[in-house]
């Protein structure tokens, strides 16, 4: 049997480990958009620094202790005819040493830990931007009380300004996880939890719910867009024009839309005649099919407790259905026709929308940027 | 207590280990038979839990996979966790408690043999109850931890949660009864001369485990009762809309749940502490430190529970307290690891299959312990919790720890229990497949978790980078499965050999190796006298090498009578909970029938004639 000789056993193990580390080395954290290992915000950096500290100690202990173990395996290997080894029962000095040293290492971890606990639990400055986060089965609601705005599934934050998240749930426990900026915090229906962070790098990043919350927990993602302050302000200003019907609404037409690269700048344009017909048809369908019962198409002064995500700027989002589908016209229409087929169990029922109607509705929603 | 004096015929049968069919197994009160019942049932559930894992690994092998529906996946991860903890690891430990504790302390049986049988039957029925949901298309799907308020009637309207809730309640009864039994057995039935500080370390670790069971299970019992009231009788203990608090469930659950993980690992610690000395040919290093560290871990284990709740926003004082206690508990754990290495140090290491698994246990448990220390820092844990990093951590301690340890115990004690050796070559193949498969499955999870993959997700999108690690993990899980197939082959092949294993194949240190393999019904013809730790090594030292023990008639030895009343009472317990499930269909009459059956069984049990 190949594995029998003493020389071959470690060879296989070492080979396996080398292969594994090759695989690992080929995958740096940059390949993971949702990674916790490339902090881009101050809160995440605190977590990352602690990870660094504990990881370094862990590697040291690992190398030392596993090394001693592997050494012992070879050094004290029994041979046939060996005499009985010395029947040691213990060694008080050694035992004290290997009790004290780990305690000291843990103290070295405890000190920065306690400091960071208090740091991360401190309330953010009053100048922070407050955003309310509400977890729903299975989507995320974001409210900006300072601006009287509501949106869903895509949260915009300014780079370089502290954001104060005040969070809750509409139903069961969820967890809002912003790996790049702020780690995570669970959200509850009966109490507010809080998180804060200052984004340092602009960009659009994915995040995900991190507490099992039912059938579609796996598809409760969201996007966070960290924008330059000027772009963020422009976004806010634009969103504040998305008022309820009767006030000037967002128009169909020529807003420039780039889904994957930060903020868009909307340019209101007069609706063109052909688009206007489709828009009006879509608007009629939105009511006729019952969409209006759950979704608001405006962003200002939206009442609390809407059943479905706010759609005021849905046309401009990069993903729909809480990070499930890229926001293409085809996906949007497909979702409208068959939400249960795509994300079974969501509260949005299949409404029996025909294919042409779904395309009309999708175009209508696309106009809402 | 009902006893019988072995007459000549029975003595002959006992001397030759004759069994007589299914009824003898249903009525057995022999701790060895009950141990085998526990072990075979638990092994079956372990394989079931393994299949559940393989199905999940297939689903996660590719992004956006549709092999499993989200409901099915959620049922599978719930049942995999629940099965592995309550129906595999705990009863596999119970197999060793049952079979080995009386032998290790020089006793004829446990203190309460019929209660022992009762525990097994309740366990079996609890396991069946828990899995009954599969047959109704409503397997438990709320996670093994069942967080409120997802478990409220509003958000889990079907019976899925009920199968879990009552299944766990039934299993809790089995565990509590067994814990009382072993606690009393260890206190009262040790052979003369076996002081507490001369007990084998497996007995010590098991003893501490029984204390943990007795103190922790009542907490989950209460929590499950409150949940039952919420779901069946309209209370609001955990329902926010009614003024209740879902966090209350978390506290209850983890005050139970953390000691539970020590319940899961301490028996394996004990097994390793038996195997290492024998296969190093020297005593356990630092016996007293091992005892006190075990006691300290158990005690402190009740003070760390909210480290499972670092992301709930408990505030800095609570976070700090639990971070510090969690770090502290690493100290006695480290002591044990160093003492095990110290046992090997300077020894003459005999690399038979049990030793392979024991050494791998140490190596894997170190990794699991280190990732645990990384979790102990709340701000760092806010990135790690609820990701695959945690999944890696607990599989390293529960699989790399408990399962490797239990496997070491299986190979070690197999000849004693079954009278047959397991094949060394197949054992080593099993070992390498298991070690490689295990690490390939679970090591990448550290990486993919820190890189953004959350737990308990039935799928993940392409583009987040999770594909490669998940593929490796899926491949690893099938290598693991192959390892267990080899183990099954080893078991079947060994069964075809005659039961002629020697009493003491390993040059053991403890009393079980002084009697035949398998032991006769009465274990020891005469109660042994103990003069020190490692009682058998001490005997061999004073008397020289011991001859192969002969099978003797056992005439005149009092043994407890077999009885079916424990099984009847167990049926009563299960019937009560079936009755609760059927409240809507048959009103209270199912519960009434169950209670009546339970009372009848216990009454007849209590008044069973002595002779």
Mean pLDDT of chain A: 89
The arrangement of helices and strands of chain B along the chain is EHHHHHHHHHHHHHHHHEHHH
Largest sheet of chain B at a glance?
Answer: 2 strands, antiparallel
Task: Tell me the quaternary state.
Answer: heterodimer
Total count of strands of chain A: 12
Q: Could you walk me through the main structural features you see in this protein, from its secondary elements to its overall organization?
A:
The complex is a heterodimer of chains A (369) and B (611). The longest helix of chain A has 34 residues, at 42-75. In chain A, strand 11 and strand 12 (325-326) form a beta hairpin. Chain A has 369 residues and is α+β, with helices and mostly antiparallel strands. Chain A has a domain at 129-366: Cupredoxins -  blue copper proteins (Immunoglobulin-like, Sandwich). Chain A is 36% helix and 18% strand. Chain A is built from 8 helices and 12 strands. Chain A has helices at 8-25, 42-75, 92-121, 229-239, 273-288, 329-337, 339-342, 355-366; strands at 129-136, 139-144, 149-152, 154-158, 162-169, 174-178, 183-187, 193-198, 203-209, 221-227, 319-320, 325-326. In chain A, the strands form 3 sheets. In chain A, strands 3-2-1-5-8 form a 5-stranded mixed sheet. Chain A has a 5-stranded mixed sheet with strand order 4-10-9-6-7. Chain B has 611 residues and is mainly α. Chain B folds into 2 domains: 3-563, Cytochrome C Oxidase, Chain A (Up-down Bundle), CATH 1.20.210; 568-611. Helix content of chain B is 67%, strand content 1%. Chain B is built from 19 helices and 2 strands. Chain B has helices at residues 8-15, 21-26, 31-60, 70-105, 113-135, 160-188, 201-233, 246-280, 287-300, 316-344, 353-375, 378-384, 388-418, 424-450, 467-495, 535-543, 565-581, 583-586, 589-606; strands at 3-5, 558-560. In chain B, strands 1-2 form a two-stranded antiparallel sheet. In chain B, helix 9 (287-300) packs antiparallel against helix 10 (316-344). Chain B is globular, with a radius of gyration of 24 Å. Classes of the chains: A alpha+beta (369), B mainly alpha (611).
């Amino acid at each position: 049997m190949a594995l029998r000789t003493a020389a071959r056993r470690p060879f296989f193990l070492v080979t396996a480990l080398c292969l594994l580390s090759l695989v690992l080395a080929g995958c740096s954290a940059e390949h993971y958009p949702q990674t916790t290992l490339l902090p881009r915000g101050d809160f995440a950096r605190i977590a990352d620094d602690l990870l660094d500290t504990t990881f370094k100690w862990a590697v040291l202990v690992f190398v030392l202790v596993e090394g001693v173990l592997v050494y012992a395996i070879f050094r004290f290997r029994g041979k046939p005819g060996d005499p009985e080894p010395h029947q040691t029962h213990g060694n008080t000095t050694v035992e004290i040493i290997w009790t004290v040293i780990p305690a000291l290492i843990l103290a070295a971890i405890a000190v920065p830990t306690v400091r960071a606990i208090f740091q991360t639990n401190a309330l953010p400055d009053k100048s922070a931007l407050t955003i309310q986060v509400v977890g729903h089965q299975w989507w995320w609601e974001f409210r900006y009380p300072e601006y009287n705005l509501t949106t869903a599934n895509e949260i915009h934050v300014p780079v370089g300004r502290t954001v104060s998240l005040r969070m809750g749930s509409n139903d069961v426990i969820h967890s809002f996880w912003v790996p790049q900026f702020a780690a995570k915090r669970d959200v509850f229906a009966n109490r507010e939890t809080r998180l804060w962070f200052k984004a340092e790098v602009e960009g659009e990043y994915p995040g995900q719910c991190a507490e099992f919350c039912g059938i579609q927990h796996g598809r409760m993602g969201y996007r966070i867009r960290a924008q330059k302050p000027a772009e963020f302000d422009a976004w806010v200003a634009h969103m504040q024009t998305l008022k309820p019907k009767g006030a000037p609404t967002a128009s169909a037409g020529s807003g420039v839309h780039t889904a994957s690269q930060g903020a868009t700048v909307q340019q209101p344009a007069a609706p063109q005649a052909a688009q206007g017909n489709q828009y009006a048809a879509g608007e009629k369908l939105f009511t006729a099919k019952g969409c209006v019962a759950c979704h608001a198409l405006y962003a200002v002064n939206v009442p609390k407790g809407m059943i479905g995500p706010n759609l005021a700027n849905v046309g401009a989002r990069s993903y729909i259905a809480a990070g499930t589908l890229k926001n293409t016209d085809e996906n949007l229409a497909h979702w409208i026709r068959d939400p249960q087929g795509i994300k079974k169990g969501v509260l949005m029922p299949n409404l029996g929308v025909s294919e042409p109607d779904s395309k009309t509705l999708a175009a209508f929603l696309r106009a809402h940027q | 207590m009902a006893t019988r004096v072995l007459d000549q015929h029975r003595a002959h049968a006992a001397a030759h280990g004759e069994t007589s069919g299914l009824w003898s197994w249903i009525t057995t009160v022999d701790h060895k038979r009950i141990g085998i019942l526990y072990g075979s049932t638990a092994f079956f559930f372990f394989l079931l839990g393994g299949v559940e894992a393989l199905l999940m690994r297939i689903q996660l092998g590719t992004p956006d996979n549709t092999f499993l529906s989200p409901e099915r996946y959620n049922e599978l991860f719930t049942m995999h966790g629940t099965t592995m903890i309550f129906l595999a690891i705990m009863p596999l430990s119970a197999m060793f408690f049952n079979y080995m504790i009386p032998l290790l302390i020089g006793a004829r049986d446990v203190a309460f043999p019929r209660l022992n049988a009762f525990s097994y039957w309740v366990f079996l029925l609890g396991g069946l109850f828990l899995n009954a949901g599969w047959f109704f298309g409503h397997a438990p799907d709320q996670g093994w931890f069942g967080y409120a308020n997802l478990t409220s009637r509003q958000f889990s309207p079907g019976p899925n949660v009920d199968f879990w809730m009552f299944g766990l309640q039934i299993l809790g009864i089995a565990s509590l009864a067994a814990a009382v039994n072993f606690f009393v057995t260890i206190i009262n039935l040790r052979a003369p001369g076996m002081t507490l500080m001369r007990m084998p370390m497996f007995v010590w670790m098991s003893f501490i485990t029984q204390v943990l069971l007795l103190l922790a299970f009542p907490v989950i019992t209460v929590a499950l009762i409150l949940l039952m009231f919420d779901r069946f009788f309209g209370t609001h203990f955990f329902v926010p809309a009614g003024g209740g608090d879902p966090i209350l469930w978390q506290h209850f659950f983890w005050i139970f749940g953390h000691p539970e993980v020590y319940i899961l690992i301490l028996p394996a610690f004990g097994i390793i502490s038996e195997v290492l000395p024998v296969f190093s040919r020297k005593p356990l290093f630092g016996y007293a430190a091992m005892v006190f560290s075990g006691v300290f871990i158990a005690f402190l284990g009740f003070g760390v529970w909210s480290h499972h709740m670092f992301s709930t926003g408990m505030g800095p004082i609570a976070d700090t307290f639990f971070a510090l206690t969690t770090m502290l508990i690493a100290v006695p754990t480290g002591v044990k690891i160093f003492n095990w290495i110290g046992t090997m140090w300077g020894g003459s290491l005999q690399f038979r299959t049990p030793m392979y698994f024991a050494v791998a246990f140490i190596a894997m448990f170190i990794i699991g312990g280190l990732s645990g220390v990384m979790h102990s820092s709340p701000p760092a844990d806010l990135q790690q919790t609820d990701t695959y990093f945690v999944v890696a951590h607990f599989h390293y301690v529960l699989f790399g720890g408990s399962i490797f340890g239990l496997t070491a115990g299986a190979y070690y004690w197999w000849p004693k229990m079954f009278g047959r050796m397991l094949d060394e070559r197949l054992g080593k193949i099993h070992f390498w497949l298991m070690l490689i498969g295990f690490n390939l499955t679970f090591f990448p999870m550290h990486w993919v978790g820190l890189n953004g993959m959350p737990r308990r997700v039935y799928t993940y999108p392409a583009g987040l980078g999770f594909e490669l690690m998940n593929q490796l993990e899926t491949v690893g899980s099938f290598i693991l499965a192959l390892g267990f197939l080899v183990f099954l082959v080893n078991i079947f092949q060994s069964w075809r050999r005659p039961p002629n294993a020697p009493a003491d194949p390993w040059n053991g240190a403890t009393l079980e190796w002084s009697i035949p393999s398998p032991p006769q019904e009465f274990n020891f013809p005469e109660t042994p006298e103990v003069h020190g730790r490692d009682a058998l090594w001490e005997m061999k030292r004073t008397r020289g090498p011991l001859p192969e023990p002969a099978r003797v008639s056992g005439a005149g030895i009092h043994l407890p009578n077999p009885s079916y009343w424990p099984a009847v009472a167990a049926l009563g317990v299960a019937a009560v909970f079936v009755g609760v499930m059927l409240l809507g269909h048959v009103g209270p009459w199912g519960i009434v029938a169950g209670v009546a059956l339970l009372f009848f069984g216990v009454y007849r049990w209590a008044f069973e004639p002595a002779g």
